[in-house]
Amino acid sequence: MKFATKLLHGTSCFDPVTGAASTPIYQASTFHQADLDRPGAYDYARSGNPTRQALEEAIAVLEGGERGFAFASGMAAISSVFMLFSAGDHVIVAEDVYGGTYRFLTKVLSRMNIDVTFVDTTYVDRVAEAITPRTKGIYLETPSNPTLKVTDIAAVCRLAKKFDLLVIVDNTFLTPYYQRPLELGADIVIHSATKFIGGHSDVVAGLAVTKDNDLGEQLYFIQNGMGAVLGAQDSWLVMRGLKSLKARLDVSTRTAEQIAGWLRHHPAVTKVYYTGLKDHPGHELQSCQASGHGAVLSFDVGSRERAKALFDRVTLPIVAVSLGAVETILSYPAGMSHAAMPKAERETRGITEGLIRLSAGLEDADDLIRDLEQALQGLELYVPQVTHAYEDGKEAFSGV
Ligand SMILES: *Cc1c(COP(=O)(O)O)cnc(C)c1O
């Protein structure tokens, strides 16, 4: 089955009991045990709920793994997966990792005596140099946020196998439609299903898939033990969004390509980051390990004042924390996702005060370009009235 068909028929596409075309929302916390000697498939909904299970099976099939798990958020999935490690373990983590993951690792996990080293994983030799006798895992995010740096998943996995390390990949930006890390040798894939998989800015959810059943059993034990499970209603919403994943991404990716190609020639834009552009350093690698470049791009307008002027002038995109939705979303990494990072550190990573991230939605591409055009009009000549910089280390937003 090809991916589009798998989205609808990879697992049972109707309810086996009633034939309902959509999985029923089993709004139940507990299940009657008819025979104490022979417990049924479900006993208590933290341990298993049929609606959540339908989603868990669907994502496992799409990622090509053995076991799927649905969590209350992307961060719930990520923090639960890190519970596979123990005190004294060391994990190598991509330096451009999602801000919430960075915060969890440096402020929470560090207290549990699990050490992490942040490495620019686009250089596999730097990953190799960071391995110590205590290293147990490598955690990747590719392409990274917001400058879309690409890590060679297969090369990192080959290295990891030599040292018996788990490879975990946050696949939120590309989804299994474009990239399937388990097929490239990874052991666990994670998603913030809040983004492309849910796709409609109406649910917060997380997913994880393990390549094999052994790891699946370990993660199931943690999911049930820690209890950060996704509710039945939200599981249903994620499945509803998932069905149109390919159709949405086909349109949004084409729009992102068009916008990126147009922005790079705009006089008010100093830089465009999109792996679909041939001069992006990760273009070749991305074209090999993934089947698409996705719907997220970033561009630099030169200063915070110009970014603010653009945010004030656009009428179609919403300005928000998040990505991967039916509506186009603009966000401001220096003030949102990376606000907690010291300015100097941000700037070395290209996260300047003028950087804007765009996640293309389903609006007409010409309308979006027209709107961005009027917002960018004369921006290269824009002289700020008031200057105000974000304070270092101040977190303006809590999330993305
Ligand atoms: C949003 C996001 C997360 C966190 O997911 P939540 O659902 O917000 O908890 C993790 N990784 C990436 C790449 C994200 O974009």
Q: What is the count of helical runs?
A: 14
The name of the CATH superfamily of the largest domain reads Type I PLP-dependent aspartate aminotransferase-like (Major domain)
Quote the average pLDDT.
93
CATH architecture of the largest domain: 3-Layer(aba) Sandwich
Span from first to last CA?
34 Å
Task: State the total count of DSSP E strands.
Answer: 12
What's the shape?
globular
CATH topology type of the largest domain: Aspartate Aminotransferase, domain 2
Strand content: 5-15%
Radius of gyration: 21 Å
CATH class descriptor of the largest domain: Alpha Beta
Helix content: 25-40%
Strand order of the largest sheet: 1-7-6-5-4-2-3
**pLDDT under 50 segments (min length 5)?**
387-400
Structural class: alpha/beta
Describe this entry's structure for a reader.
The protein has 400 residues and is an alpha/beta fold. The chain folds into 2 domains: 3-243, Type I PLP-dependent aspartate aminotransferase-like (Major domain) (Aspartate Aminotransferase, domain 2, 3-Layer(aba) Sandwich); 245-377, Aspartate Aminotransferase, domain 1. 35% of the residues lie in helices and 14% in strands. The protein is built from 14 helices and 12 strands. It has helices at 3-9, 50-63, 74-82, 99-108, 124-130, 153-162, 175-178, 213-226, 232-242, 245-263, 283-289, 304-313, 343-348, 365-376, and strands at 67-71, 90-94, 115-119, 135-141, 166-170, 188-192, 206-210, 271-273, 296-300, 318-319, 329-331, 355-359. The strands form 2 sheets. It has a 7-stranded mixed β-sheet, with helices on both faces. Strands 8-9-12-11-10 form a 5-stranded mixed β-sheet. β4 (135-141), α6 (153-162) and β5 form a beta-alpha-beta unit. α2 (50-63) packs parallel to α9. Residues 387-400 have low confidence and may be disordered. The protein binds pyridoxal-5'-phosphate. The site of pyridoxal-5'-phosphate (PLP) has 16 residues, from α3.
